[in-house]
Amino acid sequence: MENSNRIEGGAFHGPVVQAGEATVIQFAPQPPPPRRYRARWIAAVLTAALLGGVGVYLHAVAQDKGHRAPAAVVTPGPAPAVSTPAGERIDNGGGWGPDRPTFLMSSPAAYPVFNSITDDPVQGDERNFVQCRDKQSDAKFGEQMVAVDGHTYQVYLFYDNAVAANLDSMASPTENAHRNPAAELQNARAHVELPAEPLYNPGLTGHLTADNAQEVWDSCDFFAARKVLLRYVPGSARLVTVHTPDAGVPMNGGGAGLADGTGAPIGEQQDGVVGQDAGYLLFDVTVKLS
C-alpha cells in the first residue's frame, strides 16, 4: 500500500504510517510540558544506545473555524532513554512555547495567531507542531529520536492561523487571493534552530514568526550515548498545502532561510501571508555523532 500524502473525497491526508495491510492515520498528541524533567529518565536511552548500537483585533463575531489543513501527524512512539555522562550537561532539549490562550474549532480566535487550536480534527493540539522521523528506518514521526550516526531525519513543521474563517473571508475573496489583511498573518516565516556544536541530547526547535502575531516554537529531541551534531540538508525543504501536489512544492531558494536565521516565508504563495488555511513544511537534517 502506498504511503504518501493524498487527497481523497476532498479531505487531505498527510504523513501516514502503515500497519500491516491497512494504512492508519494517527493524530498528534497533546504537547508535552516544558522539558525540565528529562534528566530523570534520560538515564535508562544512553544505555540502550550503547547496548543496541543505535495584534490586530477584529471587531466582528468569530464564527466556526473552517478546516483546510493538509496535515496528519503520526503518534510518537515511546520516548527513548539515556544515561548521564559525568560532568556534562545532558538536558539540551528544545521544549515548546510560549504558554498562550487556546481555542476550539467551534470557537476560534478573533485575531491572527499561530497554532493555538487544541481540537483540530487532523492535527489535534496545534501547539505540538514539530515532529521528526528517521528516514532510514520504519520509525514513526515523534518528538524523541534515537540519534543514529550518519542517518537522515525528516522534520515535519505544521503551521496554521487560528483566526475564524468568517473574519478571513469578510472581503469576499476569490480562490487564493489575499483577503482580509487584518485577519492574515503578515510576513509569516518559519525557521529551525539547530545547535552550532555537538551536544548531548540536543533539541531541534522550529519557530513560527509574523509581524502581527506572537512567536511560537516546538521541538523534537535527539538522544545518543555520544554528542550529536545536527545539520540542515540544503534544498530539502518542501511546502505542502491543500493546493499543492501530494509531495508538496520546493521552498523558494531551497528553504535556505529555514536554517540561516532569516526565516523562510510561508503561506500558499510563500509570500509570508497566511490566511485561515494551514500547511506544513518537510525538510531533512543529518546526524553526526562525535
Question: What can you tell me about this protein's structure?
Answer:
The chain crosses the membrane at residues 41-60. Keywords: Membrane, Transmembrane, Transmembrane helix. Residues 70-93 are annotated as: Disordered. The strands form four sheets. Strands 5, 7, 11, 12, 13 and 15 form a six-stranded antiparallel β-sheet that branches. The protein is 6% helix and 27% strand. The protein starts with 5 loop residues before the first strand and ends with a strand. With 290 residues, the protein is mainly beta. It has one domain.
Question: What's the short version?
Answer:
The protein is mainly β.
Query: What is the number of domains?
Result: 1
**Main structural class:** mainly beta
User: From the alpha-carbon coordinates, what is the Rg to the nearest angstrom?
Assistant: 19 Å
Largest sheet: 6 strands, antiparallel
* Spatial separation of the terminal alpha carbons: 38 Å
Beta-strand fraction estimate = 25-35%
- H-E string: EEEEHHEEEHEEEEEEEE
Percent of residues in helices comes to under 10%
Instruction: Please mark out the parts with pLDDT under 50 across 5 or more consecutive residues, or reply none.
Output: 1-61
| Total beta-strand segments | 15
Per the principal axes of the C-alpha atoms, what is the gross shape?
Answer: globular
Number of helices: 3
Mean pLDDT figure: 77
